[in-house]
Design brief:
The model has no long low-confidence stretch (mean pLDDT 94). The chain is mostly helical. InterPro entries: Isoprenoid_synthase_dom_sf, Polyprenyl_synt, Polyprenyl_synt_CS, Prenyl_diphosphate_synthase.
């Protein structure tokens, strides 16, 4: 596959996800909460997690309908987490995806409710009355819930908030980000794989791939926080240093953090090699995209 072909696939799938989200996120929810939901999830973001779902599903010859629902569900969970993380009681950020954060635009109470509603909608999207087998619905819900809950994203955010101003070693930092950021990216890969058939060995290898790029994403995020401007990132640059948060750059140094991101990409590629899939090139290129991105 040529890089140009990959970019065409990426844009096409991003558009497909956007169309599905536009159809499934209601504008007419009571008292304007639907408007706030749509503001928080539509028209922005790299859609990396949906792309991982769809690429993994393709690699295992899975159900497109189930994968599209899984892709949108993962993005809804990701978007709700950003809405809540940006609030004054968490990171207190005013810029996200190049526009004011939801609580700045609509108020704190509406932002909290919009995030709550997006979380619930994610599981509604995964459980249609027809089109996805009940057993697959249950498996997808289980994978997403575990990644988003106390053992994953929410637990990682709790560790993050508790670690402000405290010295952390690389092991503790890795555990925090494996939960906060990595778990949902890893789950994206596995949800896509669950939409088709895999051997236990392939499932394990895809899990390792997801874990590697999940951590690589955070390492690169930490690098970009100190090397890019807010206009490029679409969010406030330098906020980790401002809030005295431990990062891969503060613990390893900038150049060592860059080397670590490359090492994690190599681990992701090696895991794909072990998976034995007929065509995992898009997953491989997505790993490159995670490490080479500038925003």
């Amino acid at each position: 596959m040529k890089i140009d072909d990959f970019e065409v696939w990426t844009r096409s799938e991003q558009d497909a996800v956007e169309s599905a989200l536009d159809a499934w996120v209601p504008a007419d929810a009571p008292a304007g909460v639907g408007v706030a939901m749509r503001y928080g999830v539509l028209d922005g973001g790299k859609r990396l997690r949906p792309l991982l779902v769809l690429a993994a599903c393709e690699a295992v010859g899975g159900s497109r309908e189930a994968a599209m629902r899984a892709a949108c569900a993962v993005e809804l969970i990701h978007a709700y987490s950003l809405v809540h993380d940006d609030m004054p009681c968490m990171d207190n950020d005013v810029l996200r995806r190049g526009k004011p954060t939801v609580h700045v635009q609509y108020g704190e109470a509406q932002a909290m409710l919009a995030g709550d509603a997006m979380q619930a909608l994610a599981f509604e999207v995964l459980t249609p009355d027809a089109g996805v087998e009940p057993a697959l619905q249950a498996r997808l819900c289980s994978l997403l819930a575990r990644a988003a809950g106390h053992a994953g994203m929410a637990g990682g955010q709790a560790i993050d908030l508790a670690s402000i101003g405290k010295p952390l070693g690389e092991v503790e930092l890795r555990d925090m980000h494996r939960r906060k950021t990595g778990a949902l990216l890893q789950a994206s890969v596995l949800m896509g794989a669950a939409c088709g058939q895999t051997t236990p060995a392939a499932w394990s290898a895809l899990s390792d791939y997801g874990a590697a790029i999940g951590l690589a994403f955070q390492v690169v995020d930490d690098i970009l926080d100190v090397t890019q401007e807010s206009e490029t990132l679409g969010k406030t640059a330098g906020k980790d240093l401002h809030h005295n948060k431990p990062t891969y750059v503060s613990i390893l140094g900038l150049e060592a953090a860059r080397r670590h991101a490359d090492e994690l990409r190599d681990q992701a590629h090696a895991a794909l090699g072990r998976a034995g899939l007929a065509d995992a090139l898009r997953l491989s290129l997505l790993a490159d995209k995670v490490v080479e991105r500038h925003s």
